[in-house]
Amino acid sequence: MYVVFRCTDCGRFLYTKESNKTRKCPCGKVVKIKKAKKITEVQNGKEAGEIVRKLQEKEYGEPFFGRYKENE
Questions:
Q1: What is the rounded end-to-end Cα distance, in angstroms, of the chain?
Q2: Residue 65 located in a structural domain
Q3: Residue ranges making up the domain that contains 15
């Protein structure tokens, strides 16, 4: 089981296994899973990653790191 949640410092969407006690956000904050604002729980990491991607895109726009658009 995986938990999708928000960083308590920067608000970024993240996910981790439900059994983990903490998760380090790219902002540097170590988030305690029990204290984080949980969004949802899902069965596998792939599904959790997809949910996080969609939530990040909805809130912050399309990601650009590592992906460059071809000339249109």
A1: 40
A2: no
A3: 2-60
